[in-house]
Amino acid sequence: MSVLEIRHLKKKFEELEVLPDLSVSIEKGDVVAVIGPSGAGKTTMLRCCNFLEKADGGELTFDGIAHDLRKMKTRDIAAIRKRTAFVFQNYNLFANKTALQNVTEGLIIGRHMNRKKAEEIGRAMLEKVGLSGREDAKPDQLSGGQQQRVAIARAMATDPEIIYFDEPTSALDPELIGEVLSVMRKLAEEGMTMIVVTHEMSFARNVANRILFLVDGQIVEEGAPADFFGNPKTDRAKEFIRGLEDRENAENPQRR
Amino acid sequence: MDESLWTFLIESFPKIILPGLKITLPLTAAAFTWAFCIAIVNALIQFANIPVLKQASRLYVWIMRGTPLMIQLYIVFFGLPSVGVVIDPIPSALIVFAMNEGAYCTETIRGCLESVPKGQLEAGYCVGMSYPQTMRRVVLPQALKTAFPSLSNSFICMVKDMSLTASISVAEMFYETQRLLGRTYKTLALYAELAVVYLIFCTVLTLLQRLIERKLGIGQPSKKRWQILGRLAHVRS
Predict the structure, then answer these.
(1) Residue A70 contacts by C-beta under 8 Å, 6 or more apart in sequence?
(2) What is the ipTM of this complex?
């Protein structure tokens, strides 16, 4: 059964039509990599799914219940948000809270869990992302990679049905990307449903089970990573993959 | 300076500082507390963009910032009795200062709320917190930390502006100094002494501000500052 289904999602910013009409269905346990050139509407799509942007039209079915995206009630939005999680490009850790408080805040305040139980979960989550011992560190005392791992721990803590990742490694120094990707890979292996907007092709190729290739707000191609990267059907996808290969070659000229 | 002047200054010192401790400082503290509460409410209303309330709040700030404090005091104390509203000097001062300062602090706090990255609010939503919860737990604490130096500034200003209340016969430092003057005519000496007392008050408040800032982790510890100066000096040489 699909966890999330979006139909005819429309979004305009002023005159710019970012998403003309987008439909997609996400199955439980899916790890979907959303890729495509910049400005394709990948992030906007993700933000509309969690109501961080108000869609101009469309329908969102979460857990079997359909909602008209134009007429979402605050209560419905809150209810869906409580069962999903979002990992931001620039982490967005609560700057005035410690790593542990960042993870427990949504449990204690958002879900009225008692502090002791929440902290237990919080510690376990931080351990899972390899940050045991940094519970009391403030975000500005952590590296970008560590901050993003806290953000992932924060996302996992609420036991969501689905986690949205908005370019989770784009703001990181190259040497810190690996630690975040490996946490995400672990999460994927545990069966977490994930939608990942990413420019990390190694992740899309090796961890995702589905690729959504977005151009100008439309899904131009979708399928298994092996098919998409090995045997792209559309010209736009071929061009995109050729571009990736050119870049790889430019970065490693000795391979030629 | 002859000895009698020194004796005079020493004798008059408690007569000046006591009304300061008894009236100026408590009145400032009370008025500022109210101003702070007014400002938080107004800043939150404006930040949340609540229709009607927001316009009302803008109107309040516009009027309070656009008219002189002294005239506001006169309207409340000398003006309102003519329509049957009689308010004692100290409550008058309290109301006017709280309302006036509240408008300035509204702008300070609103600016600091705006300066908290939008992502903080979004992150709050995404972990399942409501707007009020995220504001209370995440955005407001960060904004108030940023606002602290400016708010301290306003507080120190208010201590000095309290001297205006002498004109509506609040028996604070300036008022008492003028009464002493009426008996002794040592104008320069007494006004200078009054200025020194204000300076003492403000010095203590400034030190207090530094202390709290250090507790809040605002700015750099002085040691680090010296290191930077040292490094700059090194670069120069």
Answers:
(1) A55, A56, A57, A58
(2) 0.92
